[in-house]
Fold this protein.
Amino acid sequence: MTDKFTGYGFADYCIEQKRHVNTFLDKIDKLIDWKPIEKLLKQRYKRLSSADGRPAYPPLPMFKLLLLQRWYNLSDPKMEEALNDRISFIRFSGFSIMSPLPDHSTICRFRNTLLELNLYTRLFEEINSQLKKKEIIVKETEGAIVDEP
């Protein structure tokens, strides 16, 4: 993935060399056209800094975290834990293993902002529409995900 957040470094390069290109998340990442998602986020989501003045996390990687949450049935704290533990989640989201990762409250605030902007449902509908066109249905099954033709 070439669109990393910040701090893409040697550790990310090493992980990229060991990547399993046939994992579910790798396949989904390639199947989805992220451009319309990113365009919509850039048009409507204008947060440039966090409450304490640090630069805000970019919206596309944050949205990808919401996808992971839904697909793996994770609460905000469990999403934070998984993001800090699973290289595949870091890779899929577009963050760098070297960059600071969002905590559970940041994930929650991002989701709430998308809800306030009436973007949350619209973005998920776009993802589902794209996957449906490719005859892929992503279902949550007791904490695991399956793709069905």
